[in-house]
Structures are given as structure tokens and as C-alpha cells.
Amino acid sequence: MTSVSLRPETRPTTSEIRSAVAAGNIPTLLAVLVEMTGDRRWLSDRYRPTRSRGMDDNSTGGLPEEVQAEIHDAVVEALENWYEQGSPAREPADEELVAALMSFTAGEPVAPEFGPMMSEIVRGDLRGSHLSTLPADLGTTMTALVIGAGVAGMLISTQLAEAGIEHTVLEKNDDVGGSWYENHYPGAGVDTPSYLYSISSFDHDWSTHFGKRDEVQGYLQAFADRHAVRDRVRFGTEVLSATYDSAAQQWIVRVRDRDGSQSTLTSRILISAVGILNRPKLPQLSGMDSFAGRMFHSADWPTELDEPGALAGKRVAIVGSGASAMQIGPAIAGKVGSLTIFQRSPQWIAPNDDYFAPVGDGVHWLMNNLPGYREWYRARLSWIFNDKVHSTLHVDPEWPEPTASINAVNHGHREFYLRYMRAELGDRDDLIELSTPDYPPFGKRMLLDNGWFRMLRQPNVELVGHGVDSVTATGLVDSTGRAHDFDIIVFATGFHSDRYLYPMDVAGRSGKTTVEAWGDHDAYAYLGITAPDFPNLFILTGPNTALGHGGSFISILEYQVRYVCDAIRAMIENRLGALEVRRDVTDEYNDAVDRAHAQMVWTHPAMTNWYRNPEGRVVAVLPWRIVDYWARTRHVDLADFHAEPISAETIPDEPLDP
Predict the structure, then answer these.
(1) Looking at residue 89, what DSSP letter applies?
(2) Mean pLDDT across the stretch 439-459?
(3) Res. 655 pLDDT band, cuts 50 70 90
(4) Is the full-model pTM beyond 0.90?
């Protein structure tokens, strides 16, 4: 459900307020208290929280119980005074106070450059495209096609609709949600806190601190309902190709409907919102057609296997040990006869006490009724899970360790995670050996322990420290030549994350396709959003925009949507028919991307990851902090583009209505 008003019809009793406040996050309550009262005595050392040492929200702030009680009492008093004053509109803290409160409540310095971005979060104002303020008569010739109705497609569609820009969203599935619609395997969920992995303008009372798939998909469906997104979506429609027509300054898009029929649409603007975790990648193994049992990719999990007893007694194999495998394994280990996991490379796994923890009614009440609590809590999570760790991921050229770590702090992380792993695995030296990575922490995206280590100790679970060489009629043969028999094989082998816009055939001004311009696995774009030779094409979730160091990708999407909307606004205001990023600007940007990546942990030679293409170039993740990307995407600079005035009116070959 979405949030309720901050002005309930019935004023809560002091006892009810006190009960809810007792459930609050102490550092967040401190920030709210200072914002509500203006009393800076709460910024004294007595109330200073300790630094969060793990991937959790440090709910007590590390403060003694008597100090926590003082804070609780003061918040109760401040809220009662707020009611007495007639529940006035909240006045968010100014940028200077936000910066001071972020450092104080984090228990560690938060650099000043975070102030503007954190202020935006605290204000609850992340949209900022202002497309809807354009005079109606300016937008008459602007049309758009959006490919994909996942998070990105719905965000941009909502903005375009508010501005009155005619557009259609083309979606191959039968409902919104994108990857969350498609991936419904057991245990599926987010590895970013729910209150951070959410749309800034759309609140929800999350049931757990890390949302599971069904709740996330329901949340996205509710967003679609709120903004009538489905009215603008043409479902069951897959884009086959897109060709830019320079004379008409528009894109010609060929689509195929679910019945196999093909048609052509045109629009001034083309926006790709297909994501990178969209097309499953299966290994090329001999014998793939010979297996007599059930075999599928994790993204294609058969719904009938969710039925009670469907897995009972089954011999199940999971090929892979990344994020999907780690969610599936603990979810099914207690239901199957046996579970065998094939692991080419172990993963770094971090503890998190909140992974399955319920949020609780008290926290929901605070989110909906304590002015600023939701925004300050999100800002806090943004620091802990987004950029806090980034400075520790730079390679120290003087660091003597060749494989285990990259600098002193990173080595400390390694020791911390190893201690946790050994404590969880206990006397199982065999599992400790198989589970110890030989590369630095954060070389691959960190995983959160959801019971994985405890699962490995179960008697019906086997961890094989090898990859798979072939498939047989009865099972798999691993890379040592050992044969294994199974009833079900699950390939948790990831997606084509280095093949952008795949498998669409997209041809630009010159007639060259993206594959011809980039190669199969070496995509590049300015800000990951727009590329030379492809006018009026904007890519959401483009190259070098995924997050390697952690954080919520929804935040990145909101920044990209704001940038794209600013570009469209510039086109409308300046009567432009085409906007094409300059090649020199793009080359300079991507040279900077490559130089930055060369200093980061994920280019370390001790491991491989899905961030890099076969030649070793990082094409998937952002090399910089999220705050740096936020700054780069706040506004469009037309000097970065070749701009053409409108030379022809765009009239679609077919109506844009789905």
C-alpha cells in the first residue's frame, strides 16, 4: 500500500506516538529532531552516533540506552508540539544543515560535495525535469517511442505523459515490471534496502527491509496503476529494428506482435529502456539437447515447480554461484532431495542482520506520520549503501599483495568477511576452502548472506568447486570429468550484460548499426545515455551506468530520466528536430571512464566478472561515485551536441496509441 497523509484524522495518543518512536532508527530520529526543532544541542558528542561497520542501518547508532531514551522523549515532545501547532507543512533543512547532519548522524565525515544531492533526497524532490511546465503549443510535433515497461520505461513514460508528449511504450511481456516480471524464481528479491530501492516519488510500506520479488513487482504494478502507465503500453510487442531517417528527423521502428504480425511505427524520439539483465545467457555446452529432465535458466523458472511437493525428492543442480544462485539455493534446499551447486569462483558475502527482518508497524507509522522521517532515512541508506565504500576500491600501486586485496582498507574488509564466513561454516574446513575467494573484496558485486553458508552445511547439499563441461541425458559432467545425475538443472548463469540493445538491430544516421559501431561487446555512450551517429536516441541503463560498488539503480535511472527529459525540453524550446552528441565529447568522456576503471578493483587481474567484456574492458558499471554521476546528469549542455532545427513534421505511419 502507498503512504497515508501526514495529517491523520484522529490525533494519536502520547502512548501511541511513544510506541512508534521506540521503533525508529536513532540516527534518523536525530536528524528529524534537529530539523523540526532547530535545536543544535542534539549535535553534541553525547548524541553522536557511531559509524556503521556493516551493510545495515545501525539502528541504535551505537548509543547507550539512556541516551537513546533521551532522543525518544525529545522526538515525542517535538511531534506533540507539531500537532499542537496544527500540523504545519514541513520545512526541510537547508543544504548547510543537511551536510552537517549527514556527517553527524553517519558518525564519520561525509564530504561537502554530497550536500546538494543529499538535500535533494531530504526534500523528496528527485524528479526536476519540469517538462510539464512547457507551454502546450510547443510540444505538438514531439513524439516518442519507449522500448520496455520496466522501472525505466515507466519512469520516462510518466514524465512524458505529464508533459503531454504523445508516446507509446512497447513491451514484449504481458505486464509491466521488466526483470521483476520475468524473474520469479524462489527467493528472488533485492540486495539493496527496500526504502532505497524504490521510486522517490512513490511511497510504499515495505514489509521487510529487503523486498522480495512479489512485493517489488506489486509495488511496480501499483506505480503503473497510479500513473495509468498501461494505457500507454502496447503489450506483447517486441522491437525488431530501428532505423534513423535523417531527412524526416525521426526513427522508423519495426515491431512484431505476439501473433507474429509485423508493423512499422515512427517517432521523433526513441528511448531504450530494455535494461541489461534482460536477455538470459546460457553456456555453450555440448549435449544441451540431450538431457531427459527439466533444464532452464533461472529467469525462466517454471511456475509448476512452485506447487507444494513439486521439488520433493528431486535431485537438483544449480550451475553458477552468483546472486541468483544464492537466492535460489537457500529457498529450495529444504524442499529437494539433494542440491548440488557448481561454482567456478566463490563470492564475497557480507553479513546483514536485516535481510529477512520485518519492518514493523511502528516504522511504517513513522514513515507516514513523522515529518521528514522517510526522506532522512532514505538519505542515510543512500550514504551507507551507495558511495561510502567507493574510496576503498581504488588500487594502491604500492600495496604489496598481488591478488588478495588492493589496499589496506580493502584488506581489512577481506579479514572481516573471512571471519564471518569461518564463524558460519564452523568446522567444515572443506567448505571454508571452497568458499574463500582468491581475489579482492568488491571485485565482483558483494552479496548479502541470506542463509547461504548455513545452507552449505545441510547434509543434502553439495558444493562442487568446478565449472561444467557438458550435459548428458542424465545430468552434467564437471570440468574434472566427474559425472553427476540430476532430475532438474537450473542455469543461474546471468545475462548478456555486455551486449547493449541486444538483440535489436538499431541503425543510425550513417546506416551503421550499433553492433557495427561498437562491436558485439564494446558499447560506449556519453553518460551512458546517448551516442554519436544516433540522433534522438536515448538509452536508459546504458553502458557504464550499472553499479559495481553498491547502491540503488533506481536512483541512477531517475537521474538518467531527468537528463533525457531536460534534453527533450531543450529540443522543444529551441524547435530542434535532431539532437546528436558530438563524437569528441563522447570520446573524451569514455577515455575518462576507461582511465578511472583502470584504477578500480573490478579491473584487477585476479578475477573475472560480468562488468567486463571478453577483451577485459569494463562496459557495464560506473567507475565513479553516484554523486559524481548525479552532478553530471543534472542538466543538458547543448554545447555537447550537434543540434538541427526542425526541417520536417513527424507524422507517424500508424497512430502511437497502443
Answers:
(1) P
(2) 94
(3) very low
(4) yes
For residues 358 and 194, is the Cβ–Cβ distance under 8 A?
no
Q: How far apart are CA 389 and CA 551, in angstroms?
A: 10
Question: 82-96, pLDDT tens digit by residue?
Answer: 999 999 999 999 999
Quote the pLDDT of residue 26. Answer: 97
**What is the identity of the amino acid at 658?**
P
Helix (H) or strand (E) holding 295: strand 294-297
Counting beta carbons within 10 angstroms of the beta carbon of residue 531, is it exposed (0 to 12), middle (13 to 18) or buried (19 or more)?
A: buried
The CA-atom distances, in angstroms, between 206 and each of 72, 195, 220 are: 23, 7, 13
From residue 97, give the alpha-carbon distance in Å to each of 46, 375, 554.
Answer: 19, 15, 26
Inter-residue contact 352 to 70 (CB < 8 Å): no
* 623-652 exposure pattern, b = at least 16 Cβ within 10 A, e = fewer: bbbbbbbbeebeebeeebbebbebeeebeb
| Whole-number pLDDT of residue 137 | 54
Q: What is the pLDDT of residues 179-189, one digit of tens each?
A: 999 999 999 99
Q: Is 43 a residue whose pLDDT tops 90?
A: yes
Q: Phi and psi dihedrals of 455, rounded to 5?
A: -60, -40
pLDDT attached to residue 657: 45
Separation of alpha carbons 623 and 547, rounded Å? 8
Which of 534, 531, 648 is closest to 269 using CA atoms? 534
- When pLDDT is cut at 50, 70 and 90, the band that residue 56 belongs to is low
**Cα–Cα distance, 193 to 207 (Å, whole number):** 11
Residue 447 has pLDDT above 50, yes or no: yes
How far, rounded to the nearest angstrom, does the alpha carbon of residue 286 sit from its chain's CA centroid? 34
> Using an 8 Å Cβ cutoff, are 75 and 24 in contact?
yes
Label the pairing between strands 475-478 and 483-485.
Answer: antiparallel
CB 329 within 8 Å of CB 464? no
Asked if the bond preceding 655 is cis, omega within 30° of 0, the reply is: no
Mean of all residue pLDDT scores within the chain:
92
Q: How far apart are alpha carbons 215 and 217 in whole angstroms?
A: 5
Q: What is the DSSP letter of 90?
A: P
What is the spatial distance between Cα 369 and Cα 32, in angstroms, rounded to a whole number?
12
What mean pLDDT comes out for the span 567-579?
Answer: 94
Q: Which amino acid is at 237?
A: T
Question: Of the given ranges (422-426, 431-435, 559-563, 605-609), which has the lowest mean pLDDT?
Answer: 605-609
Closest CA to 114 of 388, 442, 393, 394: 388
CB 486 within 8 A of CB 388: no
What Cα–Cα distance (Å) separates residue 63 from each residue in 27, 69, 70? 10, 10, 11
Evaluate whether 48 touches 35 at the Cβ level (below 8 Å).
no
pLDDT of residue 7: 45
Region of 580 on the Ramachandran plot (φ > 0 left; ψ -120 to 50 alpha; else beta): beta
User: 412-418: long-range contacts (C-beta < 8 A, 24 or more apart)?
Assistant: 413/441, 413/442, 414/440, 414/441, 417/348, 417/349, 417/350, 417/441
Question: Order of strands, edge to edge, in the sheet holding 166-170?
Answer: 233-234, 166-170, 143-147, 269-272, 537-539
Residue 85 CB neighbour total at 10 angstroms: 8
CA-closest candidate to residue 486, choices 336, 344, 346: 336
Dump pLDDT digits (tens) for 249-273. Answer: 999 999 999 999 999 999 999 999 9
CA nearest neighbour of 535 among 561, 506, 572: 506
The C-alpha cell that represents 651 in the structure block:
507524422
